[in-house]
Design brief:
Helix content is about 5%, strand content about 55%. The chain contains 3 helices and 16 strands. It has a 16-stranded antiparallel sheet with strand order 1-2-3-4-5-6-7-8-9-10-11-12-13-14-15-16. A hairpin with a 3-residue loop joins strand 13 (about 290-300) and strand 14.
Length: about 350
């Protein structure tokens, strides 16, 4: 960015949810939202400052969207969801390596819902100890609003299959996922499909009084076209995305602690190799390989809650400190005051700006 001056922005966000159940075994769900962003909260503002978008694009950006709209049918051990539905696989808290149907929105200030994906999702649950689910999607991970000639080709349609069981106090699952993403290059105005296959594992349970979880997705060795098998030069750690963490509650003092480690194999441990283009295209939310998240939440006086947390880049030693104070003014009204403060040395990911 060309200036050190503070830039301000605002967000107005409204989300309306509705359910309709005409009979047992049949239900419908819809969620619509209005989102208006101005100033620096407009995604086009940093692009315009960097000369990558027209200055006029940095005004108020508002959208009205039906983010989820799907029906559900349940018949015995079989169920089916179809429409624009959330596909939220994975048990981790901050990072979900096995969630490959949509791009993550890391630290979004207003929206926490999993985006709806145009898909069908059948599930078979013959017993409490076993569940088999799958999805076939009809849009790529970018959820872009433009169309391309290749959108309807079979090789550009994502899918996933997951088997889940219970063993002792743990839920375990194994999955096989095909990811398709359409990555654009803003400066060049070009884009193309990126395909990948993943093998996933997921577990969640308890050890003593600690809740523990782990989730991993291993990118299988495919060629640049995402279709041909090329195992030569395969590096396990570079192909692995994994998250593992714990949570613990001190019930007597209303305090909850949480920690999570994340390894992003496709990232880099060398800050000189960071790419702003990856962030602008939306293909990647973070740049480095290793991260640590920590959070403490304290409830006091029944109606107040203080949340302190941080996300640290373990490779370049930068971090983001997060704080939030919540007041439950009424049964269905919460007031929040929060801040997100990035810090890091020059050239680090969280120093807050790119040249």
């Amino acid at each position: 960015l060309p200036s050190e001056e503070v830039e301000l922005g605002g967000i107005a966000y409204v989300r309306v949810k509705g359910d309709f159940k005409p009979q047992d075994g049949l239900s419908f769900h819809v969620e619509a939202s209005y989102d208006a962003r101005t100033g620096y909260q407009n995604a086009f503002a940093p692009l315009a400052d960097a000369g990558l978008a027209a200055p006029g694009a940095a005004g108020i950006l508002s959208t009205i969207a039906v983010d989820q709209a799907y029906g559900s049918v349940v018949a015995g051990a079989f169920s089916l969801q179809a429409g624009k539905l959330p596909i939220g696989w994975g048990s981790a808290y901050v990072f979900n390596p096995t969630q490959r149907a949509s791009r993550p929105a890391l630290m979004d200030p207003v929206s926490v819902e999993t985006p709806g994906t145009l898909a069908v999702l059948p599930t078979w649950s013959p017993s409490d100890a076993f569940r088999l689910s799958a999805y076939a999607a009809f849009q790529d991970r970018s959820h872009r609003e433009t169309v391309a000639a290749g959108d309807g080709l079979v090789e550009n349609l994502p899918f996933g299959v997951k088997a889940q069981t219970t063993l002792g106090g743990f839920d375990l699952s194994a999955s096989f996922i095909k990811e398709v993403d359409y990555v654009e290059n803003p400066p060049l105005g070009t884009g193309g499909y990126e395909r990948a296959l993943f093998a996933g594992l997921d577990l969640a349970g308890a050890v003593w009084d600690f809740g523990v979880y782990a989730e991993a997705a291993l990118r299988l060795p495919l060629g640049p076209d995402g279709l041909s098998w090329e195992p030569d030069g395969f590096d396990f750690l570079d192909a692995l995305e994994a998250a593992a963490g714990f949570d613990y509650s001190f019930s007597g003092i209303e305090l909850e602690l949480r920690g999570e480690y994340y390894h992003q194999g496709p990232g880099t441990s060398d800050s000189s190799r960071y790419s702003a283009i990856d962030l602008m295209s939306g293909a990647r939310m973070l740049q480095a390989e290793d991260y640590l998240f920590a959070r403490a939440e304290k409830t006091f006086a029944d109606y107040w809650k203080l949340d302190l947390g941080g996300l640290a880049n373990l490779n370049d030693r930068g971090f983001v400190a997060m704080a939030e104070l919540l007041y439950e003014a009424m049964e269905n009204l919460e007031l929040r005051l929060g801040a997100v403060l990035p810090y890091g040395p020059g050239g680090s990911e969280f120093q807050g700006r790119y040249d």
